[in-house]
Amino acid sequence: MGLLGTVGKTVIGLGAGAIGVLAIARVRDDRYVDGIWRTLEQYRGTGEPFAEEMVSGLPSVARRYFLHAIQPGAPLASRVRFSYSGSIKPGKQMPWMSLSVNQILAKERGFVWKARAWNGPLFLTGADHYLDGTGRMRISLFGIVPVVNATGADLSRSAMARLLMESALLPSALLPAPNIRIEGIDDSRFRSTVELHGESTAITLTTDQDGRLRALELPRWGNLTADGSFRYIPYGIIAEEERSFGGYTVPSRLRGGWWYGTDQYQEVIRLEISRAEFA
Questions:
Q1: Which domains are delineated in the chain?
Q2: For residue range 83-141, what is the model confidence (pLDDT) as tens digits?
């Protein structure tokens, strides 16, 4: 029996009463996630304008990146809200699915990811979030039937790396700070080591000669291993296009996945950002 047939039997077997209970639980969960969204929405920058002097002591490759990504005089943002569409591969045995996402991300605090993915009549909804060291992943079939509802130390550690990786969409979050150390690697790469929530994560950014971000990679906690055990796995994104929004120039068309830079590479997401608002 195919995937759709199995799914259909599962839904029919639940019965109207069970579906009603699941729908009520979905509403309760949505309210909880909306509360986290509102918490992150209140997190804003001081309004201090970006100035070239803020990056004058950095290696030239990092300085080029920041001067390209942040317009002089732009208020330093602490959060970004953005929307994107694209495609996602939820699992190794799953098909690629069309994707539509609204997301908020706050510097060093967390993110909320609200997504809808579909392939023909099959569709999933997702509401991942991470806040101050704790993450959760929730995926529902047809918006009601839980497929994944996970939390715990392993998921939270993986979500923290995702927060740092997606900070490429909030360049002010990567500026030098007491918990961020920046060092050059060569003419096109620099490393930003971030201390956050008890973890030290080295992020490698690759740029071109104009400072445009071309790729980003970091070790991300995951269990895409032969025995299913958790370990740090190289994860990376490739930036194919960029756009400017409100004083910031960020990657707008990206693709990425696990085991980046190895022959085991598994691309899991392709996206194009249509809107970004910084505060």
A1: 3-278 (2.50.20)
A2: 999 999 988 888 999 999 999 999 999 999 999 999 999 899 999 999 999 999 999 99
